[in-house]
Amino acid sequence: MKDVCILICIIFFALVGCSSHKSSHRTVNDHMYVDLKLPSGTLWSTCNLGANNPWEIGDHFLWGETKPKSEKDTSGYLWGQRGNYIKYGVVDNKMILDKEDDAASVLWGGKWRMPTSEELEELKKYCFCLTVRNYKRTGIGGQIFISKRNGKKIFLPVDGIFGRYWTACLCQLDGRVHHHYFIYKPRYKRGKTHSFGVQSECRFREARCLIRPVMSKNE
Asked: How many Å apart are CA 77 and CA 65, to the nearest integer?
């Protein structure tokens, strides 16, 4: 019962105390981050790459490209074609993006980079995850991640029903990439609401996905 009360208090203050948290945010290269007190020391930005506010979707990227990719852009993938990639995977045994191919590092500079799959799993493990349909009355749905350690939070918006976010890591040597997604739209079954936290899967790198930059505290 005590744990339930603590959780309710953390969620309440995280949802209504937005202004108090803003003053505790710090910036690097004009981009704000939040310290969720994660074991790895990873610091998460408050916005997606290409966004100016937490509720904005931001830009979509193909994995390993540093320029945004719109749906109307018919140009090919920078690193070849599926089954015949010219960088990363079986061709060079590289399993994580080089800094010059990391969109967060290139576009934001400094210590900013794309998260690893382990860092996204850590976020899921050490945060409470709340599904919301209308964040701050913006009409945007997504997931609020509230730290179990200090009650601070970040919001990851979704594009439509699904929120798809790249990591910097390949799954294996067949060219697919660790990719995390979540469903913001609650599902209803037999009178009960089911919401979903972050899921992970492998996805081919030519897909258009979002990026949430991170930094390592000790770098």
From this structure: 8
